UniProtKB/TrEMBL annotation:
The chain crosses the membrane at residues 174-194, 201-221, 227-248, 275-295, 301-329, 367-388, 532-551, 563-583, 603-624, 645-664, 670-692. Keywords: Cell membrane, Membrane, Signal, Transmembrane, Transmembrane helix. It is found in: Cell membrane. This is MMPL family transporter. The keyword Transmembrane helix applies. Residues 43-367, 477-706 form the Membrane transport protein MMPL domain. PANTHER family: MEMBRANE PROTEIN MJ1562-RELATED (PTHR33406), MEMBRANE PROTEIN SCO6666-RELATED (PTHR33406:SF11). It comes from Streptomyces tubbatahanensis. Residues 1-29 form the signal peptide. Residues 410-430, 724-779 are annotated as: Disordered. Belongs to the resistance-nodulation-cell division (RND) (TC 2.A.6) family. MmpL subfamily. Residues 417-427 have a biased composition (Gly residues). Residues 760-770 have a biased composition (Pro residues).
């Protein structure tokens, strides 16, 4: 790290130009090749996935996704001549639009079932000629505009279905702008210098911009979910600004201690840069744990997020020191530069709230630890009612056309705009039964299947069977009497698979697969839930092993795992309350209450475990260094918390601001990530790392640092921080927020953060992990 920092400082212009060239090259390449993101979140090999594949091969002309045009009138009937004439003309115009393969009108022969019993609502189904990821937004927008032209004079026209979803996608980059603005305010309050404030923002934007273009290129060679770029940007801005914050804080401390600009920057990268690389590595390891699930689109998400983190770390230890060398002493505020000129460098003693809080936790560890544990438990309680499922357009904001079309089909509540009988809630998520037919016996059994299904509890309507040209595949459409997200619909899927269909298949070679939205959601959730314990166990075990190597302690990794699990559980409690219970979701523009996405637990565990490791590393590194110097656990915990509390809290506020801003993205899934990550970081930084962790470490005493001697000899040694300087040399601090042993008289000692405490020389406490011996001198 020292050699790298020295090279970047000497060739700072070259480093800057290389990064700008990388950004420009990646953006240009992505613009030329385009992107191929996928919105297929299914799990290959499940019954619903097999049904979808069979349908696609048997009915290739229906490969494209569907859209639905719904119209409603309160005053007259949709069968009235003026309404029928206007909508028939509109449907002909829609059928002539590019991208529309077919239109099935309720006014055509056999279309009577598309008109509601009360005659106030009707719908037409459209088949588009390509899936969403192969079709531009403009085609869907033309369909929507043409349909809306028919509205007026008491006629309401809305559009829904997967084909229209693109028109509801957020277009403005409001979330990113607000997140950066909030981060800039926090940085300026922390630094008091515009130049120092700009550096973390520039570093993060260059890294995230390069990564975003790289994710687009990655989508050309593997399956990458369509939410991966936004998720990568969310993570990248948060960690990128935070990593740069730690290094800039360390650099500013060196300048105030009297070091020249280049030496201060070199020391900042040597010390804080090591912790940044370690923290970034833990984030990537946690993200790559998603490969255990063997779900193609999640593997693309993992690589996309890892690319963003790797580039953020690289920019922090290369581009950032080059920029620090360029701005010189302007990394300090004018007041700090004037004070340095007038009074010279002098030691800074910890003052303010962080010191008082650290002493308060030391005096009341049992009480404060119990309060923190109760708070986390209360927030985690809603997690017990977690319902995994995929939200649909019924969860869109109430003002969106997709939500209005969904409500019109289902039958809106009385008094709502366009209220009416509709077609029942199951119309928005019909089940598709796909039969593999081989011979006359199978065809006869499949022909009789609708009769058995109509008498099944939970079924509202059955249509079909329909066969393809070769007659080897049949389709039956089943409309449940409950909504797609209802547990009753999931029960119907199980009832069909376990009871009804096996009886129909007896005595034949017929095989019937249950597909459709609800079946797909349930199958995917089952795959995730089944593999979640293995995934979480591997990620937690790898993280604990890294901490074991770094801190030579059994208790530190175990506490870290427990704290990370607590943060994830409490964050999910917040997500359940907002999105599943609907507390404030409509006020935030996030739509109505609905299930939590099945893959959210996987991504949240990966990201949160990695991010919470950052704070664990920065906090415990300082405590570990003090323990090695003094052998006094109480002092180690007190000093570590006092000297790192401010920078950890500043970093947390920045992450919360960036993550929270993504609630304004207009995308329910990204907003779910934003709220979950913001809540987890807030609880992790302000409850766990600054309250529960230090309280537990006070209670455990020297046992915090115990490691069996035989295990200590077996484990390889890695070091997050440089070894403490020997007496008589310049002190080298250990980690962000740390300080080194005092230098010999006449040498220049450098405190690590504003307010580093002078430490008297104390004999070393023995090998890492050894308990304090009786009679050891105390500071």
């Amino acid at each position: 790290m020292t050699a790298l920092a020295r090279w970047c400082l000497r060739r700072r212009l070259t480093v800057l130009l290389l990064w700008l060239a990388a950004l420009a090259g990646a953006v240009s390449a992505a613009a030329l090749t385009g992107s191929a993101y996928s919105d297929d979140y299914g799990a290959a090999g499940t019954e619903s996935a097999q049904a979808a594949q069979r349908l696609e091969s048997a009915f290739p002309d229906q490969r494209g996704e569907g859209a639905t045009l719904v119209w409603h009138t309160d005053e007259s009937s949709v069968r009235a001549a003026p309404v029928e004439e206007r909508m028939s003309e509109t449907l002909r115009a829609v059928a002539d639009l590019p991208g529309v393969a077919s239109v099935r009108s309720p006014y055509a022969p056999g279309g009577e079932s598309r008109i509601s019993e009360d005659g106030h609502t009707a719908y037409a189904t459209l088949t588009l000629d390509a899936p969403t990821d192969e079709r531009g937004e403009q085609q869907a927008q033309r369909v929507l505009d043409t349909a809306r032209d028919a509205a007026g004079d008491g006629l309401q026209v809305e559009a829904g279905g997967p084909g229209i979803a693109l028109t509801e996608a957020p277009k403005a980059q409001l979330a990113e702008v607000i997140g950066l603005a909030a981060a800039a305010v926090v940085l300026f309050l922390a630094f008091g210098s515009l130049a120092a404030t700009a550096l973390p923002l520039i570093t993060a934007v260059v890294a995230v911009g390069t990564a975003a273009a790289g994710i687009g290129l990655l989508s050309q060679v593997m399956t990458v979910a369509d939410f991966a770029p936004m998720l990568g940007m969310l993570i990248g801005l948060g960690v990128g600004i935070d990593y740069a914050l730690f290094i800039v804080t360390r650099h500013r401390t060196g300048l105030r201690a009297g070091f020249p600009v280049h030496e201060a920057a070199q020391r900042a990268v040597t010390v804080s840069g090591r912790a940044v690389v370690f923290a970034g590595a833990t984030v990537c390891i946690a993200l790559l744990g998603m490969f255990i699930l063997r779900l193609g689109f999640l593997e693309g998400v993992a690589l996309a997020a890892c690319l963003t983190v790797v580039l953020s770390v690289a920019a922090s230890v290369t581009l950032l020191p080059a920029l620090l060398g360029m701005i010189g002493m302007r990394a300090l505020s004018r007041r700090e530069r004037r004070r340095l000129t007038e009074h010279g460098p002098r030691p800074e003693a910890p003052t303010g709230f962080a010191v008082r809080w650290s002493a308060f936790v030391e005096r009341r560890p049992k009480l404060l630890g119990a309060l923190a544990a109760v708070l986390m438990a209360v927030l985690a309680l809603p997690t017990l009612s977690l319902h995994l499922g995929t939200s649909d357009q019924g969860n869109d904001p109430a003002s969106s056309t997709t939500r209005k079309a969904y409500d019109l089909l289902a039958g809106s509540p009385p008094g709502a705009e366009g209220s009416g009988g509709g077609f029942g809630p199951g119309t928005n998520g019909p089940l598709t039964l796909v039969g593999e037919v081989d011979g006359a016996g199978d065809k006869l059994a499949f022909d009789h299947l609708p009769e058995a299904i109509r008498s099944t509890p939970g079924v509202a309507q059955v249509s079909g069977p329909d066969f393809n040209g070769s007659g080897d595949t049949g389709v039956i459409t089943v409309v449940p009497d409950s909504s797609p997200q209802s547990k009753a619909t999931s029960d119907l899927v199980d009832r069909l698979r376990d009871d009804v269909l096996p009886q129909a298949e007896e005595g034949s070679t017929l095989r019937v697969l249950v597909g459709g939205p609800t079946a797909g959601y349930d199958d995917f959730a089952d795959v995730i839930v089944g593999k979640l314990p293995l995934f979480a166990g591997v990620v937690i075990a790898l993280g604990c092993f890294l901490l074991l190597l770094a801190f030579r302690s059994i208790a530190i990794p175990l506490k870290a795992a427990a704290m990370n699990i607590a943060a994830v559980a409490a964050a999910f409690g917040v997500v359940v309350a907002v999105f599943q219970w609907g507390w404030g979701s409509e006020l935030l523009g996030l739509g109505s209450a609905g299930p939590v996405e099945p893959f959210l637990p996987v991504i949240m565990i990966s990201v949160l475990f990695g991010l919470s490791m950052d704070y664990q590393v920065f906090l415990v590194s300082r405590m570990y260094e003090e323990w090695r110097l003094t052998g006094d656990n109480r002092r180690a915990v007190r000093v570590g918390l006092a000297e790192t509390g401010r920078v950890i809290n500043s970093a947390a506020v920045i992450m919360i601001a960036v993550f929270g801003a993504f609630v304004l993205s207009g995308d329910r899934l990204i907003a779910m990530f934003g709220i979950a990550l913001a809540a987890a970081v807030a609880l992790d930084a302000f409850v766990l790392r600054t309250l529960l962790v230090p309280a537990l470490m006070h209670l455990l005493g020297g046992a915090n640092w115990w490691l069996p001697g035989w295990l200590d000899r077996l484990l390889p040694r890695i070091s997050i921080e440089p070894e403490p300087a020997a007496p008589g040399s310049r002190a080298e601090p250990a980690a962000p927020g740390s300080r080194a042993e005092p230098a010999a008289p006449g040498s220049r000692a450098e405190p690590a953060v504003p307010g580093a405490l002078p430490t008297p020389a104390v004999p070393a406490p023995g090998p890492p992990g050894a308990l304090p011996k009786a009679g050891r001198p105390r500071p």
